[in-house]
Amino acid sequence: MSDDTTGALTGDLYGYETLLDDDERKELAGIRRFLDEEVRPRVNDAWASSEFPLDLVPRFAEEGMVGRSYDLEHRPRASRLFTGFIALETARVDPSMATFLGVHNGLSMGSIVLLGSDEQRARWVPDMVALDTVGAFALTEPHGGSDVARGLETTARRDGDGWVIDGAKRWIGNGTIADVVVVFARDVADDSVKTFVVEKGTPGFTPTKMEGKYALRTVQNADIVFEGCRVPAENKLEHGNSFKDVNRVLKLTRGGVAWSAVGCQMGAFEAAIAYAKERQQFGRPIAGFQLIQDLLARMAGNVTASLGMAVRVSQLQEEGVFRDEQAALAKAFVTGRARETVALARELFGGNGILLENDVVRYFADAEALYSYEGTREINSLIVGRALTGVSAFV
């Protein structure tokens, strides 16, 4: 929802969007129209059915929402602030769609851009920018979430002119629809974590859709099994040779999760405002009741504080001085505030808040996934604590 006279987002009370230049704001307005007019009418049905509307995939590329974080031959890198606002706009309409793009744009393509050679980038990135190729990112395992850095069980062994991967991955977003999957496996020869690109249809690569998921239902999460999965040597990313290299990608994308969490709570907040103006009780709109206005003010504070932190994250990234603890703090804080905001929004709706037709229950459920993925609050808190004290509390 935006102000009819200015086009500004209702949830952007401090006008952070005005930090964008005029061309960026014009382009962002076009993306906003596309999301509101073409994506929003589809999201509740997709969420309810747990199916991804694949016909929308090329439209994201046509609207310029893909690959904007990277310098490309035909298009220079956009500002970090602008790409952050793209994530916000997508999530305020549907956090599932924002997650699809975050996995493809950030985790998968980001791994290839940051860890691949020039030849590897030229091989995969152009088709990923066009969304002719959809990407996924396979790090988490059935027995390894927060401790995956030390407990990675998937293995890779060099065999002749290629590598053989064995093991399993879990919670892999886009896993069943991806054309390329960035896979992290422990080299049995030197115990280091190496990075591979496994292409759809490779023998020994079996993705299976996870069922019974009640957050980000539109995202196609997969269990993936690797059984003697042979990949050619040129599919090992040249600069992906340790878990420190993995962290280079995660530091970049945790900032994106913060932006998505801002969008998630902004979507719920805007829905709550609209409902409060429409819903009549005791002969007048509930927007005129003090308790309702208190809920809205608390939500406004959360959204504004979260957006301010996300903006600063993008500025630090732009300046090239972004640190691990800053990424971790943003991810932990903003997803925590999102969890509270969507709960307050659901409270404002009363019983109607659990009806999908009113949207807020979708944000309520989706916030739980944002709160957990790409590092739980506890793990990110320990990263921050280590930076503050100089003492590691990791086991």
Polypeptide structure, described:
The chain is built from 11 helices and 9 strands. With 395 residues, the chain is of the alpha+beta class. The protein has 3 domains: 16-129, Orthogonal Bundle (Butyryl-Coa Dehydrogenase, subunit A, domain 1), CATH 1.10.540.10; 135-235, Butyryl-CoA Dehydrogenase, subunit A, domain 2; 243-389, Butyryl-CoA Dehydrogenase, subunit A, domain 3 (Up-down Bundle). Strands 1, 2, 3, 4, 5, 6 and 7 form a 7-stranded mixed beta sheet that branches. A two-stranded antiparallel sheet has the order 8-9.
Write the layout of secondary structure elements.
Elements: H1 22-49, H2 57-62, H3 80-93, H4 95-115, H5 118-129, E1 135-138, H6 148-151, E2 155-159, E3 162-172, E4 180-187, E5 193-199, E6 205-209, E7 222-232, H7 243-278, E8 280-281, E9 284-285, H8 290-319, H9 324-349, H10 360-372, H11 377-389
Parallel strand pairs: 1-4, 2-4
Antiparallel strand pairs: 2-3, 3-7, 4-5, 6-7, 8-9
Helix pairs in contact: 1-3, 3-4, 3-7, 4-5, 4-7, 7-8, 7-9, 7-10, 8-9, 9-10, 9-11
Give a brief rundown of this model.
The chain has 395 residues and is α+β, with helices and mostly antiparallel strands. It has eleven helices and nine strands. Helix 4 runs antiparallel to helix 5.
SS summary, helix count? 11
CATH homologous superfamily designation of the largest domain: Butyryl-CoA Dehydrogenase, subunit A, domain 3
CATH class of the largest domain: Mainly Alpha
Biggest sheet overview: 7 strands, mixed
What is the β-strand count?
Answer: 9
CATH fold node name of the largest domain: Butyryl-CoA Dehydrogenase, subunit A, domain 3
> Percent helix among the residues?
40-55%
Mean residue pLDDT: 94
CATH architecture of the largest domain: Up-down Bundle
Q: Cα-atom Rg, whole angstroms?
A: 21 Å
The outline comes out as: globular
Structural class: alpha+beta
Q: What is the H/E order? A: HHHHHEHEEEEEEHEEHHHH
Low-pLDDT stretches: none
Count of discrete structural domains: 3
Report the portion of residues in β strands.
5-15%
Oligomer classification: single chain
Termini, distance in Å?
45 Å
Protein name: Glutaryl-CoA dehydrogenase
Family: Belongs to the acyl-CoA dehydrogenase family.
InterPro entries: ACX4-like, Acyl-CoA_DH_CS, Acyl-CoA_Oxase/DH_mid-dom, Acyl-CoA_Oxase/DH_mid-dom_sf, AcylCo_DH-like_C, AcylCo_DH/oxidase_C, AcylCoA_DH/ox_N, AcylCoA_DH/ox_N_sf
Domain Acyl-CoA dehydrogenase/oxidase C-terminal: 246-388
